Amino acid sequence: MREHVCGQSRDAGVPCETRVAAVSRYYFDAATGSCRAFQFSQCGGNGNNFDTLEQCEGFCLESQCPQGMGLRAGPSIATCSAAQAMGDLTAIATPDTTCPSHYSCVQPLFGSNFVCCTSSEHVCRDAVTAGTACFGAFLTIQRFHYNADRGQCEPFQYYGCNGSGNNFVTKRQCEAACQPQVKNACNGVAPLNDEGDYVQRCSENVPCPRGSWCNSKGYCCPHTETACHAPRSIGHTCLSQRPGTYWYFDSSTETCLPFAYSGCGGTPNRFADREACEAMCINKLGECPRGMAPFLTTAGTKQCTLNVGGTCPVGSSCVRSNLGEPICCTSTAQCPSGRSAYVIPGSDSFVACLPDDDNCPQGHQCMQSANVPGFYMCCTANIKRMSAVAAIRRSHGRHSPTMMASLLTSVSPSRQHSRYELAAAAPKCPSGLHSNGQRCTVNEIEGCPHGYVCLGGESIRGVCCKASPKCKKRKKPYYVGKKQVLTCGDEEAGCPRGSTCTASSIEGVDICCMTKAQPSSHGSSSSGHEKSEKPHTSFSKVPKVVPKCKDGSLPFFALGSRVPQQCTSDREDECPEEYECDMATDESELRFVWE
């Protein structure tokens, strides 16, 4: 009834038999998602006709969400991208098209725009309210709310307008939203609970804890090693969930046995029935490659045929297990924040890679997964989210669908050992510093995220290491960018005039330092080629003399080059923006920063 009324178009009515003045009324405009005023003749019309703005907003505006409350944005509910609602990773997210934390993008009950509504996990925790009486103080209807203290859905009287999101038309709707069955959450494997003993939900912006993955239904499901290798635990009693009989895997006998579960807490070694336990823990088909999880059915892990489309459900791909059996697996690894994974054309699988080999498609680079330690995958090279479809099209010439089998082979468990052996040969951070896996060019401006520095040992190519090297007492670093120090060494550029290559606060890393009385961009010391103050290391050698700009500033270095780039003064198109061609200290012409 509500959908029918609010979905009707504006109707100003028909002329009355007796002459009466038109009055101001309000109607819900489905196109804009807001209540708007109009002039009503007082005769005819339809149900989308309200005496006050409060009545219109309470009856239509606040009732667009299938469940929960909408996020108000001025006179309407905040809109979002339809692609986000459908889980389309090819859509580019912007602040105007995505919903904030605790809200989900859904199709409204009426209206043409997708809107932001309270997430289901928060709907069930909202306090119940009777709302406001917008059509008479004595007119109420029965609704249902979830009582978190009792762990059940209960009826209450609703006045018809406003109120909280903990408001359901039927008891079945309430139970479906707030009392999810463990069998439906993770295919029989018990989903993780949060600190409040509620079933933990997840999304693209709310990741799962380590040892679990976010399935397509938005539940945190434990990995095989997390569930099967954990000890049995009966948990504790609580009000949010009821006790019952569950199954656990006994590793000593390699069998699945029943036990009485108290209702909350405990370990992930908990299954709804014996079939689910045996399917995950007594697995004769083997395990998925690192970074992937098996697609489970009532019969266990789903088998498939390699290189034959349609043998695995949407969202999973057919790959070889560690035992060599073809099984359906879903990709669980995630790229670092703000980056998107490269998806193999014609599949739903990500591409594993080697951190020391540039084997990712154009526009992507090999990075360590944010949630699977030691697993490297191809992610977008820039921080801005990139369309997966565009990435596939750009790289189609390098990675066509016919190459899918070879790309999937790169994530096979049989390749894990050789991949880690090759990874050992990649540039590593000195002194045990942590790396985010990102490859870089030494001293490239903003080549690494904030808080990281590019270190390459004997090479101009290196990796981003989490470090903030500092100069010794009474000296300060020479900065080439915002909080970015200039590293130095035999394979790198020399230090600008007025600074010297000096041992930093981090062992094995040398940086350009100058006395605190000298500016960072214009040195004036007469001794610009002093020797390093510490013995040479693999990351530090006495720098060779290189030409500088006459004012002491650092010249322009082309990406990957170890020497300043030269130019001719009669050409204006050779220097990049903010640079111009001028004489250097050795009388050669090169580029320097224009200031």
Topology (SSEs and partners):
Elements: H1 2-6, E1 23-29, E2 34-40, H2 53-59, E3 72-73, E4 76-77, H3 82-85, E5 103-106, E6 115-118, H4 120-123, E7 132-133, E8 141-147, E9 152-158, E10 160-161, H5 171-178, H6 182-185, E11 212-214, E12 220-222, H7 224-228, E13 244-250, E14 255-261, H8 274-281, E15 292-294, E16 296-297, E17 300-301, E18 317-320, E19 326-331, E20 364-368, E21 376-380, H9 388-394, H10 404-409, H11 416-424, E22 435-441, E23 452-455, E24 461-466, E25 475-477, E26 479-481, E27 484-485, E28 500-503, E29 510-515, E30 579-583, E31 589-593
Antiparallel strand pairs: 1-2, 3-4, 5-6, 7-10, 8-9, 11-12, 13-14, 15-19, 16-17, 18-19, 20-21, 22-24, 23-24, 25-29, 26-27, 28-29, 30-31
Largest β-sheet summary: 3 strands, antiparallel
How many domains? The number is 5
**Corresponding CATH superfamily of the largest domain:** Pancreatic trypsin inhibitor Kunitz domain
What shape does the CA trace take?
A: extended
Alpha plus pi helix count = 11
Q: Uncertain regions: pLDDT < 50 for 5+ in a row?
A: 87-96, 383-425, 518-544, 588-595
Q: Which CATH-level-2 architecture of the largest domain?
A: Irregular
What is the spatial order of strands in the main beta sheet? 15-19-18
Question: Helical content, roughly?
Answer: 10-25%
Distance between the termini: 69 Å
Structural class: alpha+beta
For this structure, the quaternary state is: single chain
Q: Give the C-level CATH assignment of the largest domain.
A: Few Secondary Structures
Instruction: Using the CA coordinates, give the radius of gyration.
Output: 32 Å
Quote the CATH topology of the largest domain: Factor Xa Inhibitor
Count every beta strand, where a strand is a DSSP E run of 2 or more residues.
31
Task: Tell me what portion of residues adopts beta-strand conformation.
Answer: 15-25%
Look at the structure and give the mean pLDDT.
Answer: 73
